[in-house]
Design a protein that fits this description.
By secondary structure, the chain is α/β, with parallel strands linked by helices. It is built from eight helices and eight strands. The longest helix is centred in the N-terminal third of the chain and has 12 residues.
Length: about 180
């Protein structure tokens, strides 16, 4: 049996970084002179749909990010993310806590990252995933590198691949056909 396919089948929880994974990594500030600027982030709609589908078919979802952002908080609510951890300095201990809170062993976690701060989580999970445009060290640490880059549908690609390996993708498709 293929090691990657076996790892996909074991996934019970998907945890995502934000900047460079759910977004293209750019941070934009807008506002009026003399006022605190507002942070703006762009998210790919297909990534958001895939996160919702994952939750709806029984996977647990989480976001683990070093930055705190009202835009991320809102997007996490829209995507129905079960676990949100923002402003995290050291990601590995927080990932361990998220998995423990969800009752999931780390070998059943898929973690998706793009930069050096993600190396700790990637080294600890059963399915480490890097986006196509991740740092070279992150791509090297991953068992799966997506074809798409961060903010460009990479999360959809990963979740769809996991659901296909688990035989759950048809449930998502059938729901959109009105069959279930």
């Amino acid at each position: 049996m293929d090691r990657l396919e076996d790892a996909k089948r074991r996934v019970r929880m998907v945890v995502l970084d934000v900047d460079g994974v759910l977004t293209d990594g750019r941070v934009t500030f807008v506002g009026e002179p003399g006022r605190e600027p507002t942070e703006v982030k762009s998210f790919h709609v297909r990534d958001g749909l895939a996160v919702k589908w994952a939750e709806r078919v029984g996977l647990i979802t989480g976001i683990l990010t070093a930055r705190s952002s009202p835009a991320v908080e809102r997007r996490a609510r829209e995507m129905e993310v079960a676990h949100l951890a923002m402003g995290v300095d050291s990601k590995l201990p927080r990932l361990r806590a998220l998995a423990a809170d969800a009752g999931v062993s780390l070998d059943a976690v898929a973690y998706m990252g793009d930069d050096l701060a993600d190396l700790g989580p990637l080294s600890a999970v059963g399915l480490p995933i890097a986006v196509a445009d991740a740092a070279p060290e992150v791509r090297e640490a991953a068992h799966w590198v997506t074809e798409r880059g961060g903010g460009a549908g990479a999360v959809r690609e990963a979740i769809e691949g996991i659901l296909r390996a688990q035989g759950r993708w048809h449930t998502v498709v059938d729901a959109h056909r009105g069959d279930s």
